[in-house]
Amino acid sequence: MENKNLFTNGARLVRRHLRIVVWIFVANLILAWFASGPVRTSISPILDHSMASRRMVDEFDLGAWIELILEPSVSLRSFGAASLHFSMIFVLYMIFINGGVLTVYREDRKLTKAEFFEMSGAYFWRIVRLVLISCIPFAILGALFSSVSGWSDTLTNDAANARTGFWVLLGGGIFLWIAFLFVRAWFDLAQSMTVARNDRGMLRNTWHSLVLSIRKGGGLLLTYIGIHVLGIAASVAVCVAFVYIPHTRFRLSFIVLQIVVLIDIVVRLWQKAACMTWWESRPAVAAPPTFERAPEAVAPPTPVVPASEQI
């Protein structure tokens, strides 16, 4: 029952605060547009005056694309650099708004833009420290996956049964996937505790959240697994639909791929909402938010904040 409540209550929080999903999606779309700038600059001199460009404008012709990137004047390295730079900007944006997002999910109310960004700024450097600490277990998991992959290749080549390597890779991959979700839940819990208790010692907070995740976080981990599996299933279904879209329907293909991005955003926020719900539902949690906002001067009653100023 607890797992079901986390699952449904987390989904309910995300649905009630869809503006956060929209904000993140729009920010991602804008940054993706800027990241595509070097691509447009590089290929427009070639395609603007070529009849072959219709194969790229009206549809996506793989052969035409391969011919294009083989042109000496088209630099794939510049494409990758631009994507990396704007991806880092998006990561920093997500880290920055984490405090505001978790505050919205904790208080379950619409914050004004000033309140939202105040909470985002108040917890920003603490969230940054948690992200840096989380790089350690994630790097360990990455090294373990590399080892399992290498072992699988060795078994495929040397074992009597060629399928042995496949089963080792499958079993190790599933185990490391669950471990990855455990680490994600662990640090999401650390972030939730930071916002809920206004913690400042991130190393101590990381240790406390790890102990709590191991001792009592089984339901939370199962919820994370369920949400992630549902997200994978939805993404696969959309990708299957994408395969069957006629290649002449380029705009429709673009919309379908953006749906995959939207699913990924919703899954991530759903997990965070479920984590905050789990933390707030614990019997020991009864204290109100401890973050002290700056004192405000006494002023006459202000009018109701319009919807456009709320998050």
Description of the molecule:
The protein is built from eleven helices and no strands. Helix 8 (163-197) crosses helix 10. 78% of the residues lie in helices and 0% in strands. By secondary structure, it is an all-alpha fold.
Topology record:
Elements lengths: L1 H15 L1 H18 L1 H11 L6 H4 L4 H8 L6 H32 L5 H46 L4 H35 L4 H15 L1 H26 L6 H32 L30
Low-confidence stretches: none
Structural class by secondary-structure content: mainly alpha
- In total, the number of strands is 0
Largest sheet: none
Which shape, going by the Cα principal axes? globular
What's the SSE pattern? HHHHHHHHHHH
- Count of separate DSSP helical elements: 11
Rounded to an integer in angstroms, the radius of gyration calculated over CA atoms is 23 Å
Helix content: over 70%
What is the average per-residue confidence, as pLDDT, rounded to a whole number? 82
